[in-house]
Every structure is written in structure tokens, then in C-alpha cells.
Amino acid sequence: MTNETHPDSLDALLSGRLTDAEADAWLSRLTPEQATFEQFTALIAAVRALALPMPDIADDILDCCGTGGSGRPHFNVSTTVAFVLAARGVRVVKFGNRAATSASGSFDLLERLGVPVEYPLARLPVLLDVTNLAFLYAPQCYPALKSVAAARRRFGRPTLFNYIGPLLHPLRPAWRLMGVSHGRMQAFAAQWLANDSQTRRALVVRGDRDSDELTPVGTSSIYDVRPRQIAKFPWTATKPPDTSPPTATDTPEANLDRFWQIVSGQDTTSAAYHSVRLNAGFGLVVSGHAATPEEGMAQASELLATGQVKRQVEQFLARVRT
Questions:
Q1: Which stretches make up the Glycosyl transferase family domain (predicted)?
Q2: What is the pTM for the complete model shown?
Q3: Does 172 have pLDDT greater than 90?
């Protein structure tokens, strides 16, 4: 094992015991262009060891988390997708954080919905049983990572830390729809998941212009991952929606308004709606609730149009606030 991936060196970085110069040198070796798959796996293992104990969850779950990192205005697609999948009966525990490179991360939107950011972990199994849905706040699960946050901010460039987030999910979901905004890191994530004993199936996706989700315009790249198996293929919408791309108004407040329009069936034309429909469709495929993306998208459209997703949101908010 090289010095760059030695556990003692990782522990020193993660615990903040390195000088600024030493930490910068370490982080420079962990950029997505320079890092090796060995470093990728070693970092995940080292960080996962810092997770707080999690409650037991009876059945397998799905996560639909993205890495972020596109640097462009962004609607909270995966957070909205979580509600769509839960409305279909999929047990979803979405891992997430506040925004790092966009205006609105998953917990920026959830906070404005009235979801407690640090929901008591002990109550998570009951919440999941009643609503099919729960959200895990990454800093709550990994409080020890605060020690490396300052070094990452000072370094100022993306590193592996920016791309391993979804893989740190402490409950190790059996099914995943994982978005990755960097091509090399997307391949690394697919390889890691194929070797993870908990993986039943995962779709690791990257959209047009390096989006960390499937996009309804342009061509998306998909790794279909099963135990020890990886298949890669492109996916292009057959009928791209006639919509304009997201704008710089994608603040948490604007996204909250858009969220309610979509889940209540009022918005069926925007780029955000089509992104939700597309990604939910693939989420239903990976969870075994749809045989094809087209079937999944049709199910997502019906769930939204008939008010089932809105009722799912209302049920979840009533439960999580008590």
C-alpha cells in the first residue's frame, strides 16, 4: 500500500492533525484527475469508520443521492424523486447535505419544507415504516468530518471528498440511483458498488454537461451495476421536452415553490418536471417496480397527476414534525 493510502496518513488528515501545508499536499493527491481507485476505496473505508451508530432497519432501502458539483443552477430533482418513489411504495432513505457548489442542496429545500435537519436517528425506523421515507443529514452521521472541512475550504478545489458522499450512506442501501458529475469518478463509483456486498443493483448516472442526474435533453451516461457486474450504456430522450434550462433563480425559496407545483400536478411542462419524471422512472426500474424506463416514467407521471405524491409529502411532513 502506498503512503498516500496508508491508514495512519488518512487518520491524520481526517482528524485535522496535519499542518496546513501537509493537508494541502495530501488533498492535491486526491483530486479527481490525479487520485487512484485505491485511494478512492481507502478514503471511503476510512471515513465510513467515523460514522455514528445507526438504528437497525428491517428491510432493504433505496437511495437517490447525487454528488453535486456541476456548478450550475439546480432544482432539487433527487429530493423530489424521493417523494415520488415513496409514493409508489419504495422504501427510501435519502442521504444528503446542504449546498456546497449550488444554491440549494437537499437539506436547504427540506429545511424550508419544515423537515427537521437532525431528525432523531432512533426514530428513523418508525418514520420509514409509516411513510416509506426518511432523510439522513450527512453532518449528523459524520460529525468527526468537521475537522477536515476547514482544510478542504482552504484548498479550494474539488477532491475525492466531493464525489464519495453518496457512497458514505451509513445504512448501505441495496438499491441506488446515484448521480455523479465527473466521468472518471462515475466509473470509480460504479466499480466500488460492484464490489460492495450490499449492492443488489445500482444505476450510476451522469447527465448532459456533467449533470449529477439524468437529463431529459442531450445524452446521459449510465453504469448499470449488479454484484461483480457492470454494463455501461448511453441514454438519450426520444422526445426532448420543449423547455428552457434552469436559471439562476434556483434558490431554495424558488425551488420550494417549484417543488409544490410539481408534486401537486400543476407543473407538467418545465425542465424540472421532466427531470423529476425521468429520474423517478429510472428509480422505479432499479428498485424493481418498473421493467423499463418508459414504464417507470409513465408511473411517475400518474403518481404526480393523481395527487399521490402530494399526499405522500403531506403524510411525511405531518409525521416528521411530531
A1: 59-308
A2: 0.94
A3: yes
